[in-house]
Specification:
Length: 216
C-alpha cells in the first residue's frame, strides 16, 4: 500500500512537468496550446515551434514516465506500483497541475512506460506506430494503432506469464499487474484522441509536417 501512496503522486508530478510547453516558449516564445491542436505533445510542438523542440519534448515526455517506473522498481518490489506510477505519469502529462490542467494526450509518456514495463510490447507498439505514421502521415493514427498493438501484446504476454510455469523472463512475459496499465493507460490515450478520430473520419486531420507556426 505504501508503494502506491508514494509512487502515484511521484508519477503524477513527474508526468505533469510540461516539457512541450516549456520548449515551445524557449525555442519559439509561444504557448503551444494557443495553436494547432492546442496540446502540449510532440506533434503540436512540431507544428508550432519546430522539429528540434518537438524531438526534445518527445524524449523528455517519454523519459519522465520511464523515470517514474524506474523509481517504483528501485524502491519497491511491487509490479502494481510500477503500473500505478506509469498510469499516474500519463495522467500528469494529460492534466498537469502546474499549468491549469491543460496538457497532452498521453502518447509519449505511455510509450515510454510501455517500453520499460515490457520491452517486447514497446517494440511492437513502436514498429506499428512508426510504420503507420510513415505511411499515412497522421501522427494521431500512428499513436492510436501503436497504443492498441502495444496493449494487446502486453496483455498477451501477461496472460502467458500467468499460464506458463516458471515464466520469469521480462522480455517474453509480462507481470499480470501490468494489465492495469495496459487497460487504463490505453483508455486514457485513445480516449483523448476522440477529436483526432473525428477529424480522421471527416478527412480534416492535420498531417505530419503541416505547420501551425505563428507568423513572425
Ligand atoms: O500524441 C498526440 C498525437 O497523436 C496527436 O497530436 O496535436 O495532432 O492532436 P495532435
Amino acid at each position: 500500500m505504501i508503494a502506491y501512496l508514494v509512487m502515484i503522486p511521484i508519477g503524477y508530478l513527474l508526468g505533469a512537468i510540461p516539457f512541450g510547453l516549456i520548449l515551445g516558449k524557449l525555442f519559439r516564445g509561444v504557448d503551444v496550446r494557443e495553436y494547432g491542436s492546442g496540446k502540449t505533445g510532440m506533434t503540436n510542438v512540431m507544428r508550432t515551434a519546430g522539429v528540434r523542440p518537438a524531438l526534445l519534448s518527445l524524449a523528455l515526455d517519454m523519459g519522465k514516465a520511464v523515470l517514474a517506473v524506474v523509481l517504483a522498481r528501485a524502491f519497491f518490489d511491487s509490479r502494481g506500483a510500477e503500473a500505478a506510477a506509469a498510469i499516474a505519469a500519463v495522467m500528469g502529462h494529460n492534466w498537469p497541475v502546474f499549468v491549469g490542467f491543460r496538457g497532452g494526450r498521453g502518447t509519449a509518456p505511455g510509450w515510454g512506460a510501455l517500453i520499460i514495463l515490457s520491452p517486447l510490447a514497446g517494440l511492437v507498439a513502436s514498429i506499428v506506430g512508426i510504420v503507420a505514421i510513415a505511411v499515412s502521415r497522421y501522427v494521431s493514427l500512428g499513436s492510436i494503432l501503436g497504443t492498441l498493438s502495444g496493449i494487446i501484446t502486453l496483455i498477451i504476454l501477461a496472460v502467458l506469464g500467468m499460464t506458463i510455469e516458471g515464466s520469469s523472463d521480462a522480455f517474453w512475459f509480462a507481470s499480470a499487474e501490468y494489465i492495469w496499465f495496459a487497460v487504463i493507460g490505453a483508455s486514457l490515450v485513445i480516449g483523448l484522441h476522440k477529436d483526432n478520430i473525428q477529424r480522421l473520419i471527416s478527412g480534416n486531420e492535420r498531417k505530419l509536417g503541416q505547420s501551425a507556426l505563428p507568423a513572425d
